[in-house]
Amino acid sequence: MVCKDTLKIKNLPKELSDAHKEDFARHFGASKVKVVTSRVKEKSVVYAKFDSEEYAKSVMFRLHQINVLNCRLCVEYAENDIVQGKPKQKRMEEPDITSKKAFKTFVNKITSFNDSVNFHQPPPSHLKYLYPKANRATINNIVHVLTTIPRFYTQVDIQVHKKIEMKVSSEALLHTPQKEEKPRSIGTIPPKKPEPEKPPSPEKTLVEEKPEEQEDKTAITAEELAANRINHKDLGVLPVFKNYHPGVPTCRLYIKNCAKTVTTKDLEYIYNR
């Protein structure tokens, strides 16, 4: 969750003390200020809370990416409120006990070899089901189902035709006589007549140079960009975008987790539009 009335100010100059950093945040209208300093990294982060979300948004657009003592500030929304402190880790939601029992009984019913004696184990892998011989009652039942359910009839008809076609094609391949390969006589190849050389026409050279110019693209096209774009519905399904939320629009991009095969030309090809 993002707290829209609290800002997180990073990359402040090291020359400023904690009191100066607090005065800096209060100068822009912050009601509550909290300075968190890391002694190991020698960096500090200022959390500033404002009276309204609109005021915090205007301050963020005003301070983000400005230069203070040769340090460019980075201002964004804080992940939690100053009063709440650090966000607590979310506990994993335990599934309901009834759903666990229902799932266990379902698995036991599927894998049970003999449910009457409470023997819940899968059957041996070497055993196979032996279909009984067809009789009049079984055939009548099958015919009755075929006539009453059109989808079942269509599915059976498709499967039967597939098996017949596979059987016919395999038999045809087995019974095709192999033709005896006759030795080919190698004759003398007559010498080719020398063709007269034609002067190169300037029109053809111009026509041939056009596709090369089209191939050297400096930026990605709109069609390629639309084809490779991820839908908004898939953002909530893919685990990579689980904690994704749109940030503040700026004139600078920070691209992380790039593959080792990515080069500068690839990035310029995508973002040079």
From TrEMBL:
Residues 171-217 are annotated as: Disordered. Residues 5-80 form the RRM domain. One of its GO terms (biological process) is mRNA splicing, via spliceosome. It comes from the Eukaryota. The keyword RNA-binding applies. GO terms for cellular component: U12-type spliceosomal complex. The keyword ATP-binding does not apply. Residues 192-209 have a biased composition (Basic and acidic residues). PROSITE patterns: RRM. Gene3D superfamilies: 3.30.70.330. One of its GO terms (molecular function) is U12 snRNA binding. Signal peptide: none annotated. Transmembrane segments: none annotated. Keywords: RNA-binding. InterPro entries: Nucleotide-bd_a/b_plait_sf (IPR012677), RBD_domain_sf (IPR035979), RBM41/RNPC3 (IPR045164), RRM_dom (IPR000504). This is RNA-binding region-containing protein 3-like. It comes from Diabrotica virgifera virgifera (western corn rootworm). The gene is LOC114338356.
